[in-house]
Amino acid sequence: MPQPARNSGILLGRVLGIPIYLHASWFIIFALITLSLRTQFAAQHPHWTPPQNWTLGLITSVLFFTSVVFHELCHSMVARHYRIPVESITLFVFGGLARMERDPSSPRQEFNIAIAGPLSSLFLAGSFWLASRYLPGGEMVTSVAYLLFTINLILALFNLVPGFPLDGGRVLRGVAWGITGDFTRATQIASTAGKFFAYFMIITGVWQVLGGNPVGGVWWAFIGWFLLEAARESYAQVAIRSTLASVHAEDIMSRDIPTVPSGMTLEEYVQEVLRTGRRCHIVISAGTPVGLVTLHSARAVPREEWHSASVQSVMLPPDRIHSVSPADLALKVLERMQSEDINQMPVISQGQIVGMISRDTILRVLRTRLQAGHLAEP
Fold it and tell me: Would you tell me how many other CB atoms lie within 10 Å of the CB of residue 251?
């Protein structure tokens, strides 16, 4: 599914050491589900009071999202079994997302991690069904338990649909990966299945709207559109990883290291940036690198002070410079730049600056390799 920004939202707590976040969109769906359940309880049980309907709607919503967390935790526990670190779990408008640091390294791992989610939901569905039949507590407990049985059963069956990025799509990718031996090809197969299912939902939604069910139709079409975008984005992410998998910082770094003297004024520095187009420079004092200055740091100083302030006054000292090593993978460098909002970094080897690498360079290499790959296809 489309991934919310890394560690985005409100930290709810930690379960088994894994941080649980609430994305801003979660509050929307939580309110809508609670309202819908309150309305459903009121229609099915007219003798219940409004406070009872609201309370049960709220409790059912909380238990539903607890079920989603359990679903994602089961993915995470299987991933941990295979020594795949799990960064976080985020609850957002369409459920949950367990963020893992890397993809599975074998078809078996992919299959087992993916199937753990639907199996956990089926387990919860069975547990709530037993609770609705045998747990004492009266009509209210029975109604809530049976509704949660239905919800978890639907969640399990929906996730088993063989379309990426749903769990069923990941199961399909694991099977296709095992057959083809090609992770990227398997992802393409699962993504195509996901697009097919998404278009089916969109068409179904349009058909329902034309048939007189605008609310249900729009909901179906919206979910279909969401899954379509998710399938496209998920495959694009895999394509990027595959394309940059063997590219290291030293392969694409610029060995032309731009430098400026420490005594240069900011006004002179901005002119140098405009002349060369280079927005990041190593500051040199007595022939020795003493820091790093960027156009961003220069712009933090009021314009009227540029003629008197030097680059040394705004530069980053060596201990605060974000840097990479020549052996670092370009993909990891790009992820760091995106998460830390950095456009360029020096490449340092054995304490010496040996080059500069920029986000634009990595993206240009990625675009060129993707285009070359398409041209090379039969």
Answer: 12
Each residue's pLDDT, cut to its tens digit, for the chain (378 residues) gives 434 444 457 888 888 888 888 887 778 778 888 888 888 888 888 888 888 889 888 998 889 888 988 999 999 999 999 998 888 888 876 667 788 877 788 999 999 999 999 999 999 999 999 998 888 777 888 888 999 999 999 889 988 888 777 889 889 999 999 999 988 888 888 888 888 888 998 999 899 888 888 877 887 888 888 788 878 877 777 777 777 878 898 888 888 888 899 889 999 999 988 988 888 888 998 888 888 888 888 888 888 889 888 988 888 888 788 888 898 888 888 888 877 777 888 888 877 888 888 888 888 888 887 777 544 443
- Its pTM surpasses 0.85: no
Q: Do 234 and 318 lie in a common domain?
A: no
**Residues 346 and 292: beta-carbon distance below 8 Å:** yes
Q: Answer yes or no: are the C-beta atoms of 209 and 218 closer than 8 Å.
A: yes
Residues 136 and 46 in one domain: yes
Task: Choose, from 72, 139, 250, 272, the residue flagged as catalytic.
Answer: 72
Identify the helix (H) or strand (E) that includes residue 182. none
Based on the structure, what is the number of domains in the chain?
2
Q: 340 an active-site residue?
A: no
Give me the domain span that covers residue 127.
10-244
Report the DSSP pairing between strands 18-22 and 86-92: parallel
Residues 197 and 265 in one domain: no
Q: Which long-range contacts (CB under 8 A, 24 or more apart) does 301-310 make?
A: 301/266, 305/266, 306/265, 306/266, 306/267, 306/270, 307/265, 307/266, 307/267, 308/265, 309/265, 309/266, 310/262, 310/263, 310/264, 310/265, 310/266
Radius of gyration over every alpha carbon of the chain, rounded to an integer in angstroms: 27
